[in-house]
Amino acid sequence: MPHDAIGAHAARARSAPAVWGNVPPSNPNFTGRKAMLAELHQRLLRDKGAAVVPQSLHGLGGVGKTSMAVQYLYRQMADYDVVWWISAERTAQISASLVELAPHLDVPTGPDVASTVGCVLEALRAGQPYANWLLVFDNAESPEAIRPFLPAGGPGTVLITSRNPHWAEIARPFEVDVFIREESKRVLRERSPDIDDTDADRLAAALGDLPLAIEQAAAWHSETGMPVAEYLQLLEEKRVELLRETALPRARHPVIAAWNVSLDQLQAENPAAYQLLQICSLYAPEPIPRALFGRRPRGPVTPELDPVLGDPIRLGQAIREISRYSLARVHRHETTLLMHRLVQTAVSSRMTDDERSVMLRAAHLLLASNDPNAPDNAQHWQRYSSLHPHVLVSGAERSDEGWVRNLVVNEVIYLLRWGDYESGLELARTAHGTWSQKLGQDHPQTLQMARWLGFLLFSMGRYQEAADLNSTVLEAYRRTMGPDAQDTTDALGNVAIDHRVRGAFSEALTLSESVHRQYLRLLGPDDPETLRAAHNLGVSLRLVGDFARARDLDRRTWTGLTQIYGHDNVTSLNTWLAYVVDTRELGQYGEALAQHREMAEQIDQLFGHDIPLRLSCRRHLAVTLRKAGRHEEALDAAERANAALRRRHGMSNPESICSALELSVQLRDAGRHQSALALGMETWHLYTQTYGRMHPHTLSAAVNMAVTFRCTGNAAAARRIDILALRGFVTALGETHPSTLICRTNLASDHYALGDAAIAHDLDTETLRRSREVFDEDHPSTLACAANLAMDLRTLGHTDQATTLHTDTQERLSRKLGSSHPAVTQAADWEHRANCDIDPMPL
């Protein structure tokens, strides 16, 4: 390892920053630039403690701006607490990177991505929790694109790399020029000691001292041993050719010409390796998995490439040929290839239209051959992640191959499961629009993408767009395939989801039952599609309050899914979570908590990232902990879940709203009534904006808020809210829905707090009767109502009756929840009425 690389490695081992994010690997062949690195260090030191004025490394493509920035970081890493590398070509990349930084700074999250970015920038400005930070914006397009993402002062520093020289308005420009001649000659002689000083000087002059060209020429000479005079003649011939290529900027001619010499040689000696490069030039300028070329594509590519693809020996030989000439950097430990953008330009500019068409088809077929066709399986997510940028840049959605289009669908599903809704939405919209034009709006794959696009929109809370699309898709299937086709049935299931969103739970249940029956008839009870329909039926059953039937169905569905997919699949785990929620809502808190802890641990071990399933599991765990009486642990879990969801999806996402509602309840239970009330009101407003004022979920948020009002001494406000909510529940869900009964229980407590014990008594008496029928005599919600009724009776002077009911209720609560449960302790003192909260079921 060169001395500089060893020193950098040792420095990192001694004192790595507390936060070190996304920094590219160091270049072991980095040479020269000592004076520039020293000057850059002095500039950054001089700027510390002042208003943040970035240093912008700018210069031509190929001068090594990024390499120099990377080298600086590895040399000086011990000087910083935080080093964060940001790919700055697109605004979305910058935002995503800063959001990723947020948890490392322990900053509060905002209602959306923009707010979270603002919190991160404020934390950097304030120097909390780290004062000594360095942000690197790599390959920034313009000052206008970067300006909104710069901290407004603070103790840290910012470094920018860009081909754009116009940075004087917001940064101190630092031009990275070509090598000085001695640096060029040193690089050439280090790789090829037989080059004398005169030839090195001639070669450096011909290449304009451009670092990337020098590095490539050094590799060429090292591998071929061609005399410098002969190489210079070839280089001049390529320059003349390039002068005719008006599309290529003259500034790129030295490096393009140098590569064209190598490309000519590679094309002649190893056509397969050359064609491999052509394919790579059509992918993203990001690491390309070597395994991409290790699987034979579905169908022939070219006579030269066909014997190489899928043959590890021949493939290895081709990759070694590419690496010999420094046409791509091979990261052996990461098993990836990386092409510089200029190499891609050089290779791409040589292709004819016919060659480009052939190689683009090959690029798409290779991507498709690497599709595991299992986007629900987390074991394959790393592969889908590595394929994603190349799917985008190569325009895979434009392929004429059905296998390639299937990969695009699977990428959308992966992004949905992973929780990158914005990227999934972008790809789904692009593919759906392209296929609608190329294949027709009624083509099966166009409609398949439309269904997933609808589910993405649903997951993001963009409900009207989802409903409109789902309705269009259903009509298309009915028109083209008939009412009894499987795809039509599946589309009907999506429309059932839209009914849930509207609050029409009974109608949704009717549709879900119809879809499930149709799948049973078409495919039988054990088919994956039937089991998926069964899971969705369970969702509808929970929403109408039929938890017993939902639990029985979910248990059977979960068993069937694990037999097909195993215990570690997202599909299986989703239904397990549903089964645990059923168990909890049936009042079996201890059993639910034991299973929930086991599931949360398993999901953490499997994913280790805040995917939607993990976040949903954590959100529900906070509820289960609260129900089981673990209030301190529940509050911590609720705060963590809410912060993670807001950070991941923003405050307006449906899951984020649910988590905020749960946190407001936990804050109230912890005695933090004002904070609970403020968050509860905010959450109610979000529910109103998202679903409408009379949606059952909005009414649930209102009921929970009313409890907090009563706890703050404003029982009159609580009563007004609960009266309106009760009317809404009766209209939407009926007199005996669990949410209706809980609202009645709380309304009785409002009256009691206002001195109307008689009204409270009448409400509690009727609610207890119905609760015993809907739940059972020992359900915690039933016993909460019974405990409150005992207080009504005592206040009204019916002491014996009150004592009998109170004693019976406490014994039942103790058996049901355990003697140490806070609800049991509270029920014993005759002082506190039981508050009942509503936890909205997932849609």
UniProtKB/TrEMBL annotation:
InterPro entries: DUF7779, NLR-like, P-loop_NTPase, TPR-like_helical_dom_sf. Residues 266-355 form the DUF7779 domain. Residues 802-823 are annotated as: Disordered. This is FxSxx-COOH system tetratricopeptide repeat protein. The lineage of its organism: Bacteria, Bacillati, Actinomycetota, Actinomycetes, Kitasatosporales. The gene is fxsT.
